[in-house]
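User: Second chain of the day. Same drill as before.
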Amino acid sequence: MAGELTALVMAAGKGTRMRSSLPKVLHPVCGRPMVEWVVAAARAAGARRVVCVTRPGDGVAEGLPDGVEVAEQTDGEGTGSAVLAARAAV
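Assistant: Same format as last time:
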């Protein structure tokens, strides 16, 4: 639908600086996974659709709130590659 706001959440980062086997967006912040706060903020800002870019097999897709669409980033690094991975979904 034209004019419908879609939020794109970049969650394919490896988070190596956190030195954890848990993807950084799944780390709890005030009792909720970090990505849940981002999705809630996007919805509060008026996003009717939320698309989350993840890496295959990282467990992030399984930890997303209900109603969040997933686009998998299989190639490349960084924000540009994440946006390209989501282009079909948005």
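The first strand starts at residue 6 and ends at 10.

User: Great, on to the next one.
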